[in-house]
Amino acid sequence: MDGILAAWMDSYSLYFISYIIYGFSLASSQLIFCNRVFLIMNMYQGLRTIRRTVQEVWVYISVGLMPLTMIPFVYVLTPNQENAKRAMIQDYKIYPDCVYDINSVIVCNPLNNCAIIFAILNLANVFGSTFIIFYATHKAYMLLSKRMLTKSNKTKRMHQKFNKRTRLQAFVIFTFANFPIIMANLILLIDIETAWPSYIIDILRENQPNASLLTLFLFYDPYQLYLTTIWRKYRKHFSKRIVRVKSEHYSENNQRF
């Protein structure tokens, strides 16, 4: 654990707080995503049935609680740092030098199968969240595809854009948020000792905000209009600057001759 807060808080507290924040942020983002999908579905399905209401409540509860269920497990499975570091140094012939670092955190007890349990729980959580997201996306896509058959061309284009945006956002969530977790925990379960998967995991996790921002500018008209306005403004500014530099350079050459 590093950063500015590492100077005021111990590494274990930072680790646990970061997991709480990550769990709530993931739950809120998934709830917002499913809520938008259900709003579109309810808009075109007319009368609400008890079965559909129960299904929506089940999806909301599952999506909201799945990321939060890992918080108590993290609290229970994370060992006492002093004892765990001492055990790792004494009982293992090969151990990383970062164990000596005061900011390092051992997330599982090295003397039992805590890491395996932690990996299985993570995989179950991620697979469940991924299934619910793609299920909601598929339901919205199928509904709007049926509705497009009897609508005008303008409405069809609107539905097509929504379908593309929804599928892209589901793909971005899976690729940049869920897939790195799946990859890391599968490597832990299979016990593969290689460095290259960590680079892929770091690249995907670090670029998740950039990928999410890209989806906004690809399919949301207000963001596209804002981006094009900024681009035109700075393009005119740079064009005038280039013309001014060229004219100054041309006048200097004429003065020399």
Features of this protein?
257 residues, mainly alpha, 2 domains, globular
Q: What is the average of the pLDDT values?
A: 74
Please tell me what the overall shape is: globular
Compute the number of structural domains: 2
Order of helices and strands: HHHHHHHHH
Quote the distance from N terminus to C terminus. 64 Å
Structural class determined from secondary elements: mainly alpha
Helicity range of the residues?
over 70%
What is the CA-atom radius of gyration, in angstroms? 26 Å
Mind summarizing the main beta sheet?
none
Tally of DSSP helical segments: 9
Strand tally, please?
0
Uncertain runs: none
Beta-strand content: under 5%
Concise synopsis of the structure shown:
This protein has 257 residues and is an all-alpha fold. It has helices spanning 11-45, 50-65, 70-77, 81-91, 114-147, 153-190, 196-206, 208-219, 221-256.
Describe it:
The longest helix has 38 residues, at 153-190. This protein has 257 residues and is mainly alpha-helical. It is globular. The chain has helices at 11-45, 50-65, 70-77, 81-91, 114-147, 153-190, 196-206, 208-219, 221-256. It contains 9 helices and no strands. The protein starts with 10 loop residues before the first helix and ends with a helix. The protein has 2 domains: 4-219; 220-257.
